[in-house]
Amino acid sequence: MTDNETAGVLYAVVCGAGPASRIGTFVTLAQAEGWEVCCIATPAAVEHFLDVPALQELSGHHVRSNYRASDDEPFPRADAIAVAPATYNTINKWAAGISDTYALNLLAELTGLSVPTAVLPCCPSSTPHSPPIACSPEASTSFALPASTSSSDPTASDPIRHAWDRVCSTITRGISHWTHYESTTKLVPRSRGYEL
């Protein structure tokens, strides 16, 4: 990709789980692929895991966890979404249509508009086969982001960095094909014509 080319606008939806503290690594990787990254965080992510000022400086946009005020600058339209890390709570509320946070409301709206979405679950090892996860539309993902840096990944010395690499490359490859499925993530077709 040349300096004049961009992949588009990527919304990074960040949930409250340990890997969220390293979301800056994902933002940097996505920017290197040409994405303009806008971060949307759940309240738990903001309260417990994120360095919001540092993330705002890195992305060049406000980190949004609530609806914008009328005088706030709107985000540009999303070309793709990465929900990473995606917690058990967020995945199941999203699947059930519960939008009690700004992040969930945005996901519900953009899912309805078929914006390509990659989901990287971060769930305790006991939950992926529980009934709510098994019934969720996002349950087709089978690669779970390790819950902590102590988790082992036989293919990487840094499993969280490896997970960020995989979701970033999947979005970048998949966006040009409109629909793309991979064992690590789920991408769905996109459409245009919305304003946030």
Give the DSSP E fraction (strand runs of 2 or more residues).
15-25%
Radius of gyration: 15 Å
CATH H-level homologous superfamily name: Flavin prenyltransferase-like
SSE order in H/E notation?
Answer: EHEHHEHHEHHEE
Which blocks of ≥5 consecutive residues have pLDDT under 50?
A: 131-154, 177-196
Please describe what this structure looks like:
The longest helix has 17 residues. Helices cover about 35% and strands about 15% of the residues. Strand 1, helix 1 and strand 2 form a beta-alpha-beta unit. It is built from 7 helices and 6 strands, in the order βαβααβααβααββ. It has a single domain, classed as Flavin prenyltransferase-like (Rossmann fold). The C terminus is likely disordered. The protein is globular and about 35 Å long. The protein is of the alpha/beta class. The strands form 2 sheets. It has a 4-stranded parallel β-sheet, with helices on both faces. The protein has a two-stranded antiparallel ribbon with strand order 5-6. Helix 1 packs parallel to helix 3.
